[in-house]
């Protein structure tokens, strides 16, 4: 058994320091939490980013307009958008709703399918 010498808690992801191990090991405290999430402008405003059951179209447009405004000045906008696109998240992430993310994924798929002339 390798003894733990210390933990660097100030890193974005806590790092374990182990005796006799040349590389640090990352301590996963929450596998869904990404280091950038703590810097999001949306923190504490979940109700604006995820639709309540039975939400009507007009209410969705109003809620997403507020969410889009919050996202527009967010320091982690691009990290958030990439995470949501990669993980097929539901809700409003990185300035995009579900439909916008689906369209972006389809467009990216079409671009990658275009043959390159040699």
What are its keywords?
118 residues, globular, 3 strands, mainly alpha, single chain
What does this structure look like?
By secondary structure, this protein is mainly α. Helices cover 40% and strands 9% of the residues. The chain has four helices and three strands; from the N terminus they run βββαααα. Strands 1-2-3 form a three-stranded antiparallel beta sheet, with no helix packed on it. A hairpin with a 6-residue loop joins strand 1 and strand 2. The longest helix is centred in the middle third of the chain and has 16 residues. The N and C termini lie far apart (55 Å). About 11% of the residues have low confidence.
The helix/strand class is mainly alpha
Number of helices: 4
Main pleated sheet: 3 strands, antiparallel
Fraction of residues in helix: 25-40%
Low-confidence stretches: 4-10, 24-29
How do the strands of the widest beta sheet line up side by side? 1-2-3
Shape: globular
Instruction: Give the N-to-C terminal Cα separation.
Output: 55 Å
Strand content: 5-15%
Count the beta strands. Answer: 3
Q: What does the radius of gyration come to?
A: 19 Å
Sketch the topology as an H/E string, one letter per element: EEEHHHH
Describe the structure concisely for a colleague:
The protein has 118 residues and is mainly alpha-helical. The protein has helices spanning 46-49, 57-72, 77-87, 98-113, and strands at residues 4-8, 15-18, 25-26.
């Amino acid at each position: 058994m390798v003894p733990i010498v210390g933990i660097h808690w100030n890193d974005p992801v806590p790092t374990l320091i182990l005796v006799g191990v040349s590389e640090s090991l990352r301590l996963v405290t929450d596998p869904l939490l990404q280091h950038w999430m703590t810097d999001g402008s949306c923190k504490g405003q979940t109700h604006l980013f995820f639709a309540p059951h039975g939400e009507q179209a007009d209410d969705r447009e109003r809620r997403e307009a507020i969410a889009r405004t919050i996202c527009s000045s967010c320091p982690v906008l691009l990290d958030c958008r990439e995470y949501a696109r990669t993980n097929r998240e539901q809700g409003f992430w990185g300035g995009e709703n579900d439909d916008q993310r689906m369209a972006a994924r389809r467009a990216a798929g079409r671009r990658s399918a275009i043959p390159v002339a040699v």
